[in-house]
Amino acid sequence: MSNNTLQSLFPQAPVLLGMVHLPGLPGSPHAVAFDEVIAAALHDAKTLQDCGFSGLMIENLGDFPYFPDHVPAETVAAMAIVADRIKASCGLPVGVNVLRNDALSALAIAATARLQFIRVNVLAGTAVTDQGLLTGKAHLLLRERQRLGAEHIQIYADIRVKHAAPLVARDLAQEVEEFYERAGCEALIVSGSGSGKEVDFEFLRAVKQAAGPRPVLIGSGLQAGNAVELLRHAEGAIVGSSIKLGGQIHQRIDPQRAAALVQACRGRHAEAR
Fold first, then answer.
1. Which of 17, 21, 83, 108 could bridge across to 61 with cysteines, CB 3.0–4.6 Å?
2. What is the three-class DSSP state of 183?
3. Which residues of 218-229 are buried (b: 16+ CB within 10 A; e: fewer)?
4. Of the candidates 251, 189, 190, 250, which has an alpha carbon nearest to the alpha carbon of residue 64?
């Protein structure tokens, strides 16, 4: 897998995916009125588009504590409605992540709402998390993608995902190779230990070295101050906490923070060229 798949969606480098974090959805302990969910999502999506982000990723952040593998039907329905509204309101590529690790529901939402990519926290291997042991289901996901005629939907997969630890230590180069070649992801995501936490620079560099020309995205901790250094070793980043009001993950997008990050990242790329 080369960069071409990622570049087909995001021709401008670096790729910057802004998070549309949803408040609590129907049925969750922190649920809010669904009209408020839609309004907040559309507001954040417009802000991110206006600030120059490459694409958007929808996530049910407010649904904690999260189901490990399979979310209930009302969550899938709510996320599909929100995804459809966002897709109709903006011209950017849109993706979805269903927490904690419901890749099949993410794929169903993406296929129904005409999205272009999904994020899978544990695509391969087994991780120890606060939801217990999570084991990847790449074998089911890729078959379902083919069955739905949705091969165009790209899969971005976390390696040694945040808020977790691998069940056993493995050779990193072999692990990276297997994600691309055996689990079938289009890009790898490298995050820090938790949401908003900066990635370990040496780990990021090692993953990118093992990945070669295949795409790597930074999954947490990117901000204007570290963008120049970190993006030397990745094709782009997924950004949430650092562009929120006060840098707080459960707040709405701060247009000034978001615009400053885009400017820093685009400026870095121009210098690199």
1. 21
2. coil
3. bbbbbbbebbee
4. 250
